[in-house]
């Protein structure tokens, strides 16, 4: 399918010129076209932040909710109608700061959704404060003495929790990012993709050059099914790019709810008369 | 017990973990099966073991639907029970139980029954609480065969030897009870229910709300456990597979409410159940419902605050909180069931109201309502599945299309050719972010128009008593049946009762109804008269008096009768 299928004409995009988000948007459209997903079958869920504006910039169904809260509605949407492809678009502040607890529990639930986190190690929309992934020493108008906290390591966290798909990409490498997104969406279960991205307006430390110096490709013959190797990779100083961990066969949340065992019809399209069932429940209360 | 009584009030008390709840459960069914109207409610401490908890069971010849302080028969299962209940024990109270549990400086006739020995005689597995249940059955002259049958039914599926030990212990207790009756130490109630109650059902408030949710088409519940609202979650979880309901225990209330909004967006019918503290965490999500124009059903079972407050007690102090919660301006509906029928009907209705106007709808109950149970005729569940109000979208679909009543046809993803975009930011008709300030004004007004439409469909307050009254007693939510009985006790022909099952927006007749009386009293379970204030502001009618309670316990019939008696006789 042609990626232009997702284009919206006459858009006024709120991102800064040169923002890594443009590359991620292109990679996303490329991936969706390769996956042959029609806009009418795709829901993109987001919270708040510059990354969270992504769904407004392509043809798709949109649920643009609250800061940090994209995963709970995304999980529910997939559960209520498993026929939809559900992708979450989030940033490092939105997903790893405000929404951290939901990330932990989405990993535990394992709904068949894809979570793309635009990680530029800084808060853009609120103008340049530190984010959970900011590196120590990073000075901002709020962290005036420099960040001293240990940076949040989303990949190590996800591997430790047994997430079923964990990957990292560099936004500027559109082709590889698209490839990782394709694999993430195809994976049955929860997929986390941390997408490194420079912020041209507010992060003068983690520039594109910095990312090029501090990232590396996974070695040939790397086995993403080896959890211990994945953990070692996740804890390395250099940021590994690619599919770091993948665990097949873990049932998805929506399958585990038990409501699709006998009847695969998505909830909205069921029209069962509950009268007889309710009468039976009440009979037991006599 | 005086001869003119039409009900007997039985109280069980003991420590948490002694099985009072089990006795309540069996005894209520047993009494109903024996032809009584029944009512039960409990008060308990926030602990898993120890402390003192009690449950009151009223068995009547007529319907009983309210908490009474009176104790006709008290069965303490441990020490400390008498001191805990001292205020409610009178010279007419009969106390039956283990001699050491009857010691204490309280009035009342003592009937010593060696419960422990009776249980021991019934076998090593036989519990004392089942012996106590038997004593109650014997004193009330219930048939032994029915006692055994109800015990076997209640524990069906449990360890067979244990169930039989329960039956034997109850039989031993019943024998002791019957002997006391034969000896003239206790007179069983001479009445039975006037009408046949055998086809009626016994439900708690939590179950009535749960049944209403199922009847309203609920297919998704996401919540975090919190007393006293968890009963709704457990009820639905137990029936989730049969009815096709997703029941998910969320990591927190923030997740719960956001899940529910996602579920509605995709075409589900979702609810959350919580209490004040949990709802506090949902407030941003409530505001999101307002902005997304999403339907949402929120059950808030109130308990005393602020903060953790009294986790297992009751109060009606979150009305203003629920009314004002959420930043920004958007419409909502607040329903407050008083009877179990209202618990069922209003919850069912909440789903349709939420769907019709695309707004959040509250069921505002409390611990007393959740934990009280009584018999009632089964609900009418005919009429087929509820209407789902989402539409098939066309290619040029706009989620927030402007309409005269503010309600835009609601599409869902994957149903039709259109794209469905909902946005927490101010948005245009298509649902995309806008900072067009003219459009902002249009959208605010669109959202508020839905509130006006919903107000036109408000549940009317219920007036009982003379059409023109000297006084009218106003209630909302769970206090309704208590006031009804209290007014009956007072026997005032010049006083009416006005009960509000919808507290926001108020029905257009509220003011006219209040003006029908010369004087108005509002009875409610909080310290500042929240509903009184709300009613005065909305109707422009002054409510002259308030009777308030905020010690964590429900109003009792006696308390309301005394308070009202003093006020109504006070002239004016």
How would you concisely characterize the structure shown here?
With 286 residues, chain A is α/β, with parallel strands linked by helices. Chain A has 10 helices and 8 strands.
Tell me about this structure.
- The complex is a heterodimer of chains A (286) and B (572).
- Chain A is α/β, with parallel strands linked by helices and 286 residues long.
- Chain A has a single domain (3-283), classed as Thiamin diphosphate (ThDP)-binding fold, Pyr/PP domains (Rossmann fold, 3-Layer(aba) Sandwich), CATH 3.40.50.
- Chain A is 32% helix and 16% strand.
- Chain A has ten helices and eight strands.
- Chain A has helices at 20-35, 71-80, 92-98, 100-109, 154-160, 174-186, 208-214, 227-235, 253-256, 275-283, and strands at residues 42-46, 61-64, 85-91, 114-119, 165-170, 191-196, 215-217, 239-246.
- In chain A, strands 2-1-3-4-6-5-8-7 form an eight-stranded mixed sheet, with helices on both faces.
- In chain A, helix 1 packs across helix 6 (174-186), helix 3 crosses helix 4 and helix 5 packs antiparallel against helix 8 (227-235).
- With 572 residues, chain B is of the alpha/beta class.
- Chain B has four domains: 7-182, Pyruvate-ferredoxin Oxidoreductase, domain 3 (3-Layer(aba) Sandwich), CATH 3.40.920.10; 202-376, 3-Layer(aba) Sandwich (Rossmann fold); 390-455, no CATH class; 462-569, 3-Layer(aba) Sandwich (Rossmann fold).
- In chain B, the strands form four sheets. Chain B has an eight-stranded mixed sheet with strand order 6-5-4-1-3-2-14-7. In chain B, strands 9-8-10-11-13-12-21 form a seven-stranded mixed sheet, with helices on both faces.
- The longest helix of chain B has 23 residues, at 160-182.
- Classes of the chains: A alpha/beta (286), B alpha/beta (572).
- The interface between A and B is large, with 57 and 70 residues.
- Strand 2 (61-64) of chain A pairs parallel with strand 17 (421-423) of chain B.
């Amino acid at each position: 399918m042609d990626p232009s299928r997702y284009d919206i004409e006459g858009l006024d995009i709120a991102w800064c010129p040169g923002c890594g988000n443009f590359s991620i948007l292109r990679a996303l459209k490329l991936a969706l076209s390769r996956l042959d997903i029609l806009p009418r079958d795709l829901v993109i869920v987001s919270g708040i932040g510059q990354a969270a504006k992504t769904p407004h910039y392509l043809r798709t169904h949109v649920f643009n909710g609250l800061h940090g809260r994209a995963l709970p509605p995304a999980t529910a949407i997939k559960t209520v109608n498993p026929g939809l492809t559900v992708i979450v678009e989030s940033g490092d502040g939105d997903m790893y700061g405000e929404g951290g607890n939901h990330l932990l529990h989405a990993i535990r639930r394992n709904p068949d959704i894809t979570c793309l986190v635009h990680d530029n190690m800084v808060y853009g929309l609120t103008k340049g404060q530190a984010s959970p992934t900011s590196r120590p020493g990073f000075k901002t108008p709020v962290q005036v003495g420099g960040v001293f906290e240990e940076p949040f390591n989303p990949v190590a966290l996800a591997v430790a929790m047994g997430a079923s798909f964990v990957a990292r990409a560099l936004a500027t490498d559109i082709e590889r990012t698209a490839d990782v997104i394709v694999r993430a969406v195809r994976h049955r279960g929860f997929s986390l993709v941390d997408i490194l991205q420079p912020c041209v307006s507010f992060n003068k430390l983690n520039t594109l050059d910095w990312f090029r110096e501090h990232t590396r490709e996974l070695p040939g013959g790397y086995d993403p099914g080896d959890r211990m190797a994945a953990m070692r990779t996740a804890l390395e100083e250099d940021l590994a790019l690619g599919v770091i961990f993948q665990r097949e066969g873990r049932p998805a949340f929506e399958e585990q709810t038990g409501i699709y065992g006998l009847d695969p019809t998505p909830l909205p399209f069921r029209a069962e008369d509950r009268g007889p069932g309710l009468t039976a429940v009440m009979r037991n209360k006599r | 017990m005086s001869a003119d009584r039409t009900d007997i009030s039985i109280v069980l008390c003991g420590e948490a973990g002694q099985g009072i709840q089990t006795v309540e459960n069996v005894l209520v069914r047993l009494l109903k099966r024996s032809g009584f109207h029944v009512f039960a409610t409990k008060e308990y401490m926030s602990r898993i073991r120890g402390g003192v908890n009690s449950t009151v069971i009223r068995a009547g010849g007529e319907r009983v639907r309210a908490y009474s302080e009176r104790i006709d028969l008290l069965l303490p299962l441990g020490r400390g029970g008498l001191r805990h209940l001292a205020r409610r024990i009178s010279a007419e109270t009969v106390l039956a139980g283990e001699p050491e549990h009857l010691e204490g400086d309280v009035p009342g006739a003592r009937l010593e029954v060696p419960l422990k020995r009776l249980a021991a005689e019934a076998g090593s597995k036989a519990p004392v609480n089942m012996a106590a249940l038997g004593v109650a059955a014997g004193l009330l002259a219930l048939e032994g065969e029915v006692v055994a049958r109800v015990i076997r039914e209640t524990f069906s599926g449990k360890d067979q030897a244990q169930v039989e030990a329960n039956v034997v212990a109850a039989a031993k207790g019943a024998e002791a009870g019957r002997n006391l009756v034969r000896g003239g130490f206790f007179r069983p109630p001479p009445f039975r229910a006037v009408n046949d109650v055998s086809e009626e059902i016994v439900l708690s408030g939590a179950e009535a709300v749960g049944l209403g949710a199922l009847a309203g088409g609920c297919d998704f519940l996401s919540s975090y456990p919190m007393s006293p609202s968890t009963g709704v979650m457990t009820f639905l979880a137990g029936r989730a597979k049969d009815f096709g309901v997703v029941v998910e225990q969320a990591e927190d209330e923030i997740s719960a409410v956001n899940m529910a909004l996602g579920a509605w967006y995709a075409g589900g019918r979702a609810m959350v159940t919580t209490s004040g503290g949990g709802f506090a965490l949902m407030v941003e999500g409530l505001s999101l419902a307002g902005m997304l124009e999403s339907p949402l059903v929120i059950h808030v079972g109130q308990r005393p605050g602020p903060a953790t407050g009294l986790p297992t007690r009751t109060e009606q102090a979150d009305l203003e909180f629920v009314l004002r919660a959420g930043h920004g301006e958007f419409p909502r509906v607040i329903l407050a069931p008083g009877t179990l029928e209202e618990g069922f009907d209003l919850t069912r209705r909440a789903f349709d109201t939420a769907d019709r106007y695309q707004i959040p709808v509250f069921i505002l109950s409390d611990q007393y309502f959740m934990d009280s149970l009584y018999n009632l005729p089964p609900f009418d569940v005919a009429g087929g599945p509820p209407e789902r109000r989402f539409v098939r979208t066309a290619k040029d679909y706009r989620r927030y299309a402007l309409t005269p009543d503010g309600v835009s046809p609601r599409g869902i993803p994957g149903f039709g050719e259109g794209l469905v975009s909902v946005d927490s930011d101010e948005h245009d008709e298509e649902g995309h972010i806008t900072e067009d300030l003219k459009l902002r004004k249009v959208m605010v007004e669109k959202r508020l128009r839905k509130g006006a439409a919903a107000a036109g469909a408000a549940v009317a307050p219920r007036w009982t008593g003379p059409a023109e009254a000297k006084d009218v007693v106003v209630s909302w939510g769970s206090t309704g049946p208590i006031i009804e009985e209290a007014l009956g006790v007072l026997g005032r022909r010049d006083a009416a009762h006005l009960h509000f099952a919808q507290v926001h927006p108020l029905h257009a007749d509220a003011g006219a109804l209040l003006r029908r009386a010369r004087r108005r009293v509002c009875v409610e379970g909080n310290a500042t008269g929240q509903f009184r204030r709300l009613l005065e502001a909305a109707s422009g009618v002054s409510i002259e008096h308030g009777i308030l309670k905020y010690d964590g316990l429900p109003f009792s019939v006696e308390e309301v009768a005394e308070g009202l008696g003093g006020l109504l006789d006070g002239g004016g």
